C-alpha cells in the first residue's frame, strides 16, 4: 500500500466516524486513534527516532529494541484529518513466553502541534491492555511527563533508570477483579447474617444435622435460562455437583424447580438437565415444574460424607492449590465469561474430578464460582480469617484464555484447596500457586517479585466461618 493510499484510508475512516457521530463541537480535536498496520508502524518509528534519538539524545543511533520485534507488540497510532500519523504508542506482554496478564506500554510520541493526542493514546492503550486480559499494566515514563500520567489516573511506583536517564515506573490501576466481586458477592454479609451452620458459614454446601448428608442449592440466572435453556439445564447440575465436590461429598440425588412459559421451553431446559445428570451419574429424584411464568431454574443437590471439608479451614502459611480442567473452550455466546470443559467429558472423567477433594481431604476447599478464581480465593481466605497471595505465573490456565478472563470467568471445573494434600482429579491440571497469609484480601505476585492488590478486604462481608 502506498503512503498516499494509506493516508486516504485514514481520511475515509475519520469521515466515517464523523458521519456516524456528527460534526464535533468547535475546537474539538480532529484525529483518529487506531491500531497500526505495517506502513503506519514505520511512520510511528520515524516519529520515535526524531524524538528520542535526534531531539532528546536518549539513545545512540536507534531506539528500537526486542519489543519492536515481538509479534505480540501492538502499536496504536493517531492520524489527523489528512491521514498523517501524528503520534503513537506501543504496548504488549512484558514477559517472554505465555502471556500471564502483565503488560507494558512505552515509546509514547506525538508531533509538536497535536494537542490532546498524547492523552488519547494513553487512554486507548489502557483500554486495549485491559481488553487483552491484562491485570497489570506498567510504563516507565520520563520525569517531565510524570504529572501528565498522574492526571490521567496512573500511580507512581518508584524511580528507575532507562538508557542512563532518570525515569519513573508507573502503573495503571486495573480493578477488574474488584468490580466483579462488588457486583456478585459484596452484599451477601449483611443479607445472610445469622444463616448457616457454625464452621460452614458461606460454604458451598451445608451439612444436615444428625446425618452424613450435605445439601447444596443453586439458581441459574433467569437471563441465561431464557437465552440458552439447554445449557442452563446442564449448568444447574454442574454447579450443584461442584458444590458437593468442594465439601468432599459424593452426590446421591438432585431436585429441580423449573418455571417456564410453556411445555416446549421446559422440554429444552430439562433436556440439558437430564443429559448432565446422566453424564455425572447422579439421579434426578423429583422436583416441581410450573408453566405460564417467566423462566426460572434452581436445583438442590444431596450428597454424603462423614467428614465435610470446610471452605474456612485454611490457616496462614498453608499453600494454595488450583485444580482445574483446562480442556474445552469458551461457551458460544459467553466468551471470556464461561469456560465449558465438562459437556464433552466422559462420565469416568467427571466422576474423577468431583471425587478429588473427598479423596484428598485438604484443609479447606471451595469450587470456583461466578466470582472467578481470585474472588473465590478471597472468599476462602475470608472464611478462614486470613488473606491470600496468588502467584500469577503458576496458575494452571488454558492456552486459549487470557489471564484476565481466566481469573474472572466461571470455569467448568476448578477447585481451590489449601494444605499439603495433592489432588488426583483425572484429566484436570493441578498446581500450587500461592499461599494463605495474615491480614485480609488477595494479592497477586508477579515473576519480578512485584505484588499488586486484587482485593483489599474480604469478599462477602460474612467474616470467618
TrEMBL record:
It comes from the Bacteria. This is Putative N-acetyltransferase (TIGR04045 family). Transmembrane segments: none annotated. InterPro entries: Acyl_CoA_acyltransferase (IPR016181), GNAT_dom (IPR000182), MSMEG_0567/sll0787_C (IPR023911), MSMEG_0567_GNAT (IPR024035), PurM-like_C_sf (IPR036676), PurM-like_N (IPR016188), PurM-like_N_sf (IPR036921), ThiL-like (IPR006283). The lineage of its organism: Bacteria, Bacillati, Actinomycetota, Actinomycetes, Propionibacteriales. It comes from Kribbella caucasensis. One of its GO terms (molecular function) is thiamine-phosphate kinase activity. The keyword Transferase applies. Residues 31-175 form the N-acetyltransferase domain. The keyword Transferase applies. One of its GO terms (biological process) is thiamine biosynthetic process. Keywords: Transferase.
Amino acid at each position: 500500500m502506498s503512503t498516499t493510499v494509506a493516508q486516504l484510508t485514514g481520511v475515509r475512516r475519520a469521515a466515517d466516524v464523523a458521519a456516524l457521530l456528527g460534526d464535533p463541537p468547535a475546537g474539538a480535536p480532529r484525529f483518529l486513534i487506531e491500531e497500526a498496520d505495517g506502513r503506519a508502524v514505520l511512520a510511528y518509528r520515524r516519529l520515535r527516532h526524531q524524538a528520542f534519538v535526534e531531539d532528546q539524545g536518549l539513545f545512540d543511533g536507534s531506539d528500537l529494541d526486542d519489543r519492536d520485534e515481538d509479534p505480540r507488540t501492538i502499536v496504536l497510532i493517531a492520524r489527523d484529518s489528512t491521514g498523517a500519523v501524528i503520534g503513537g504508542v506501543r504496548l504488549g506482554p512484558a514477559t517472554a513466553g505465555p502471556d500471564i496478564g502483565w503488560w507494558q506500554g512505552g515509546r509514547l510520541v506525538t508531533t509538536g502541534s497535536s494537542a490532546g493526542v498524547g492523552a488519547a493514546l494513553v487512554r486507548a492503550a489502557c483500554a486495549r491492555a485491559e481488553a487483552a486480559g491484562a491485570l497489570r499494566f506498567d510504563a516507565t515514563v520520563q520525569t517531565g511527563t510524570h504529572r501528565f500520567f498522574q492526571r490521567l489516573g496512573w500511580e507512581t511506583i518508584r524511580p528507575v533508570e532507562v538508557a542512563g536517564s532518570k525515569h519513573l515506573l508507573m502503573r495503571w490501576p486495573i480493578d477488574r477483579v474488584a468490580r466483579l466481586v462488588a457486583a456478585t458477592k459484596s452484599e451477601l454479609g449483611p443479607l445472610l447474617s445469622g444463616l448457616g451452620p457454625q464452621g460452614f458459614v458461606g460454604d458451598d454446601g451445608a451439612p444436615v444435622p444428625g446425618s452424613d448428608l450435605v445439601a447444596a442449592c443453586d439458581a441459574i440466572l433467569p437471563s441465561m435460562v431464557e437465552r440458552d435453556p439447554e445449557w442452563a439445564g446442564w449448568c444447574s447440575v454442574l454447579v450443584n455437583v461442584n458444590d458437593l465436590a468442594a465439601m468432599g461429598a459424593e452426590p446421591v440425588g438432585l431436585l429441580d424447580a423449573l418455571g417456564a412459559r410453556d411445555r416446549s421451553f421446559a422440554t429444552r431446559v430439562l433436556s440439558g438437565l437430564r443429559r448432565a445428570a446422566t453424564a455425572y451419574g447422579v439421579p434426578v429424584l423429583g422436583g416441581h415444574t410450573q408453566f405460564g411464568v417467566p423462566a426460572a431454574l434452581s436445583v438442590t443437590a444431596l450428597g454424603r460424607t462423614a467428614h465435610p471439608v470446610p471452605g474456612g479451614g485454611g490457616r496462614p502459611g498453608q499453600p494454595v492449590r488450583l485444580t482445574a480442567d483446562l480442556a474445552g473452550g469458551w461457551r458460544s455466546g459467553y466468551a471470556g465469561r464461561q469456560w465449558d470443559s465438562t459437556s464433552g467429558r466422559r462420565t469416568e472423567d467427571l466422576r474423577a474430578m468431583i471425587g478429588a477433594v473427598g479423596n484428598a481431604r485438604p484443609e479447606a476447599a471451595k469450587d470456583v464460582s461466578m466470582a472467578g478464581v481470585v474472588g473465590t480465593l478471597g472468599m476462602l481466605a475470608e472464611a478462614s480469617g486470613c488473606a491470600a497471595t496468588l502467584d500469577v505465573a503458576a496458575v494452571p490456565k488454558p492456552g486459549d484464555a487470557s489471564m484476565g478472563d481466566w481469573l474472572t470467568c466461571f470455569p467448568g471445573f476448578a477447585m481451590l484447596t489449601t494444605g499439603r494434600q495433592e489432588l488426583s482429579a483425572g484429566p484436570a491440571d493441578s498446581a500450587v500457586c500461592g499461599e494463605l497469609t495474615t491480614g485480609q484480601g488477595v494479592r497477586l505476585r508477579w515473576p519480578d517479585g512485584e505484588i499488586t492488590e486484587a482485593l483489599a478486604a474480604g469478599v462477602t462481608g460474612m467474616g470467618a466461618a
